[in-house]
What we know:
The protein has 4 helices and 7 strands, in the order αββββααβββα. It is an alpha+beta fold. It has a 7-stranded mixed β-sheet with strand order 4-3-2-1-6-7-5. The relative contact order is 0.18.
Amino acid sequence: MAQPRSxxxxxxxxxxxALAATSSTCSHDAQRLSGPGDYIVFGDxxxxxxxxxxxxxxxxxxGRLYADTLDIYPVASKLPHTVEFVQxxxxxxxxxxxxxxxxxxxxxxEAAVVIGQPDAGDWGGFYLETNVSGEIRYWxxxxxxxxxxxxxxxxxxxxxxxxxxxxx
Length: 168
């Protein structure tokens, strides 16, 4: 039995909408760090700061945690950031490894490299870099919740915790 004409027309837009939602979800899922060579670099920086802890940058890759030894303040015009890593003890890796799965999929839709006003009022900023299947992306992210889109707020709290753990 043939469907009434109005149902066929109604089902076509619904099918198109469902396919669009599914394809956008798949593109986000593809941004997960799971392949060989994939990594996440994360850290924070403070401009009006002296001594150790002004720039703390770390890298998670290949089941290991690394710390940057250069401690260079990240600048938007000079991204990706220049780093030189040394491996940290394995115990710290297990405490921060979950950060890989916490990167919000919506972040990969951001066209801007700078999100908010990182370190504008001496409150610091976050540096985040990912390599997913050979596609390198990087961001400077504000530490002030009021300057962030809502979807990033929980992630930046997790990011801050991971930095504290890695820097111990």
